[in-house]
Amino acid sequence: MRFVTITSGGWDTHQDNFNGLKKLLPPLDKGFPALVTDLAQRGLLETTLVVWMTDFGRTPKINSAAGRDHWSTAGVLAWPGPACPAAK
Q1: pTM of this prediction?
Q2: Cα dist from 73 to 5, 55, 58, 65, 66, whole Å
Q3: Could you give the CA distance from residue 66 to residue 76 in angstroms, rounded to a whole number?
Q4: pLDDT confidence of 61, banded at 50, 70, 90?
Q5: Residues linked to residue 57 through DSSP beta bridges, in sequence order
Q6: Of 57, 54, 58, 56, the residue nearest 67 (C-alpha)
Q7: For every residue of 6-45, which 3-state class applies, written as one string?
Q8: What's the DSSP call for residue 4?
């Protein structure tokens, strides 16, 4: 079984959240769907499980430094792959 890990740092946006996300989100917005699409087009998505996750989420409230603090009850998880229906 092959296993690949990709790490993307810089998401600890306690300060200047919105400007930070302007830099962080575009590569993710392009890369994640491109990976899933490529795997599907090559017939590999049926035998590949892609997992994207965070260790915790961010508060909905903006703090005094224009950032968002840790919120352990709001993590993110996506897993396109075998037996996972496509989003509608």
Answers
A1: 0.76
A2: 24, 10, 9, 22, 21
A3: 22
A4: very high
A5: 71
A6: 58
A7: CCCCCCCCCCCHHHHHHHHHHHHHHHHHHHHHHHHHCCCH
A8: -
Could you identify the residue written with the tokens 């302007």? 22
Q: Pull the structure tokens for residue 66.
A: 């224009």
pLDDT tens digits, residue range 10-41? Answer: 888 999 999 999 999 999 999 999 999 999 99
For residue 88, pLDDT beyond 60: no
CA neighbor of 7 nearest in space, from 44, 46, 55: 55
Can you tell me the distance from the alpha carbon of 46 to that of 76, in angstroms, rounded to the nearest whole number?
Answer: 23
Beta partners for residue 53, in sequence order? 77
Q: From the CA atom positions of the chain, what is the Rg in Å? A: 16
